């Protein structure tokens, strides 16, 4: 009797997820073969998303993205990393990402019968070396260390956990311990880009302030 196999529901199958996260396990393909297969599926997925964008009604969009409070948080969190994934891939292959993002937003607004003017400037600079980041925090120069740099500092195996504790202590996070940092790093050896915290609930108040508001 053949073994019943559950259908694949995502871009990656269960064995493929295991192959990417557990190199010690037995896998049917080499990593290069796996990436080739996934790349083909990825392009097919892009085609499906393009089709969905063109044919879903507004109500169907709303249902897909905001079914329940829990679904909304999940979609927003994962959408953050999907957008980062697209940006990173386009940037690595030499695309004009600024134009691509601005043009995509204009296209989406046009679907709502609205013109949009999008101004997007991406200015980058390298993080300070870890020792300089920690020194800056200790000296109160918080503007020199962004939240993104602090996240990288947390997971950087070259930075001793005690130094991470010192850095966060300078931010009044006095309950953090070396054991906390070690535990958080455990199991992330294979991850190239560490997950960052994602704000999933943002409310924008568009109400005009009353005359007596300060």
What do you see in this structure?
There is one protein chain. By secondary structure, this protein is mainly alpha-helical. It folds into 2 domains: 14-110, no CATH class; 130-185, no CATH class. Mean pLDDT is 82; it is low at 1-6 and 204-214. The longest helix is centred in the first third of the chain and has 25 residues, at 31-55. The protein has helices spanning 14-21, 31-55, 58-65, 69-92, 97-110, 130-138, 147-155, 161-169, 178-185. Helix 6 (130-138) runs parallel beside helix 8 (161-169) and helix 8 crosses helix 9 (178-185). It is globular and about 55 Å long.
Q: What keywords describe this structure?
A:
9 helices; 2 domains; mainly alpha
How would you sum up the global shape? Answer: globular
| Topology, number of strands | 0
Q: What share of residues are in beta strands?
A: under 5%
Low-confidence stretches: 1-6, 204-214
Rg result: 22 Å
Q: What structural class do the secondary elements suggest?
A: mainly alpha
Relative helix content: 40-55%
How many domain regions? 2
Q: What can be said about the biggest beta sheet?
A: none
On the 0 to 100 scale, the average pLDDT is: 82
Terminal residue distance:
75 Å
By DSSP (H or I, 4+ residues per run), the number of helices equals: 9
Order of helices and strands: HHHHHHHHH
């Amino acid at each position: 009797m053949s073994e019943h196999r559950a259908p694949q529901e995502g871009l990656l199958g269960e064995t493929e997820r295991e192959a990417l996260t557990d190199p010690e396990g037995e896998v049917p393909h080499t990593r290069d073969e796996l990436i080739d297969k996934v790349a083909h599926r990825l392009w097919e997925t892009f085609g499906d998303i393009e089709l969905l964008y063109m044919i879903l009604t507004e109500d169907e969009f709303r249902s897909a993205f905001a079914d329940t409070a829990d679904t909304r948080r999940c979609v927003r969190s994962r959408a953050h990393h999907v957008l980062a994934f697209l940006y990173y891939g386009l940037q690595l292959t030499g695309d004009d990402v600024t134009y691509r993002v601005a043009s995509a937003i204009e296209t989406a607004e046009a679907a709502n019968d609205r013109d949009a003017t999008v101004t997007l400037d991406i200015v980058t600079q390298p993080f300070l070396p870890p020792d300089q980041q920690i020194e800056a925090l200790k000296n109160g120069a918080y503007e020199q260390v962004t939240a993104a740099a602090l996240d990288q500092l947390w997971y950087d195996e070259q930075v001793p956990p005690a130094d991470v504790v010192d850095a966060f202590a300078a931010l009044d996070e006095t309950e953090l311990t070396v054991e906390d940092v070690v535990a958080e790093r455990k199991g992330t050896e294979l991850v190239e880009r560490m997950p960052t915290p994602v704000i999933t609930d943002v409310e924008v108040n568009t109400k005009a302030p009353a005359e007596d508001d300060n």
